[in-house]
Amino acid sequence: MSVERVLQLIQDVEGVVASFVANPAGHLVAQQIPAHLPKAALRRTALRVARIIRSAERCELDVERCEFQFEGCQLLVWRFESGMLGILSEAPLQRRALGAAARQALRELRSSWPPSGSLAGNSPAPPDRGPHDAR
User: Fold this and answer.
1) Which among 47, 51, 74, 92 is placed 20 to 30 Å from 121, CA to CA?
2) Residue 114's pLDDT is what?
3) Domains of the chain
């Protein structure tokens, strides 16, 4: 099953706004996002989540799933061997349906992604530089 089809399974759950698959460094591989949400914001979010996960791992925490709450939305992230699955949702959310869809998506991603020989991009992304970091 293609990554795009996996994401479509997630999108079919009531309350899901957007979904994405990113490599371990946080670089987007595929996404399902409505036109009113900027893709750049989703890219930044995936990179930030990857950094949070790496920080947790440096503290010897094993992160398999993360949940972030903000502005009436939730970002749910599941890790798998080759990356992460992210789901942005808003209320009302069908938790059981989402859990079942996420488990199915993770099974598919674990068995078929990334395609053989395409592990490029697994190295950590360079840190974002803000105005205070200029050299």
Assistant:
1) 74
2) 67
3) 3-112 (3.30.450.30)
